[in-house]
Fold this sequence. Notes:
This protein is 47% helix and 0% strand. The protein has helices at residues 13-25, 41-61, 69-76, 79-90, 97-112, 114-125, 130-134.
Amino acid sequence: MASELVPAPQIDGEAMLEIFVHRPIKFTGMPLNPDSPYGDGRRLASIGGTTLETAYKLICFNKRPMLTAEALESEVSRLPEQVGKWVEGYEWREKETRYLVDAYVGAVLIGEGFQAVLNWITALVDPSAAQSAQQGQYSEPPSKRLRPDQQMSFPQPPPNVHAPHPLHSPPLPMHMPPSATYFVAG
């Protein structure tokens, strides 16, 4: 079955460790890693589970011919069965079936965005529809995401820089009416 599945999107090594290694060896109450965009595998599974259900439901919703609300819910109720097939196909551990998929989806979401999740799940659910998903049927507005390999930092001012100008404009001179436009040289 593994050859029938599209390849799972690549995730970085840190996410792989959180999903496949760290969880079994972490003790209860262990603090989250503040230097990691993931925190831990449980956080990835939490957001990944919701994202997987949303992507799967959206794919089913957009099927043609349209499904009734009842048929849509019935189709969505088969998600656990699909997840089982995917875990088997990807040869991931059976015991952790849904957790692994949810955490993996969470890592793809954080690393590559919802569109990457949607493209992947579309290709798994309906390979013939995967092409339209990649062409923007489910497109989301482009956004700037923090990549897992990036750290959020702010540029440091060069040394000997004067303090910035105040945020508030000085009061209007008495001889200028309030509606006048003027520029203050700084």
